Amino acid sequence: xxxxxxxxxxxxxxxxxxxxxxxxxxxxxxxxxxxxxxxxxxxxxxxxxxxxxxxxxxxxxxxxxxxxxxxxxxxxxxxxxxxxxxxxxxxxxxxxxxxxxxxxxxxxxxxxxxxxxxxxxxxxxxxxxxxxxxxxxxxxxxxxxxxxxxxxxxxxxxxxxxxxxxxxxxxxxxxxxxxxxxxxxxxxxxxxxxxxxxxxxxxxxxxxxxxxxxxxxxxxxxxxxxxxx
Length: 229
Ligand code: FES
Fold this sequence. Notes:
- There is one protein chain.
- The chain is an alpha+beta fold.
- Helix content is 34%, strand content 12%.
- It contains ten helices and five strands; from the N terminus they run H-H-H-H-E-H-H-E-H-E-H-E-E-H-H.
- Helix 2 runs antiparallel to helix 3 (38-52).
- The site of FE2/S2 (inorganic) cluster has 12 residues, from loops.
- This is 2Fe-2S iron-sulfur cluster binding domain-containing protein.
- Residues 25-90 are annotated as: Disordered.
């Protein structure tokens, strides 16, 4: 059975940065929307989580890649419940995929946008909540949850990662490429911002015409990155 390191394609003695890079790559490769499978995507998420939790050889994955899981032993069947689970760190972000708004015929400024989303029964990739920890960008927090949100430059230059802030405080750093008018409308670049309060955001808004006009193709950054390897 593959170890979490084998699933991510990194050496067991890889450092944190290499593990995160490998995780991001594998998330992109295995995401169902990118031609991967739900099983492989889940296995990558589990592998990363297990490494972060201090993987020891011999651990069993929570979601084996093939076949039914073996039955629990007597001791495994009744684990001691955690009497006091830790509170998640950071602020809470409620997110919605812009594709859902387009598919449903909704609008970004609908007053009940997130109420409708909560009642819609959408996949976790499209609607849900997660926490953004201190010193983490919104994009990094989404990726930590295993979501493959759009990005390219990771430096506030291309707008592929644009989100719309519907509620909450999310200031931009001094340097960004958004015109003031778009910034005033709540558009932010998820690779360089972090929420200061609980927030509601719509991601994947690069298809909004005013944002799309600023878009630099992701292929430009892939070429730049490979030419410096
Ligand atoms: S990924 Fe390019 S602006 Fe965020």
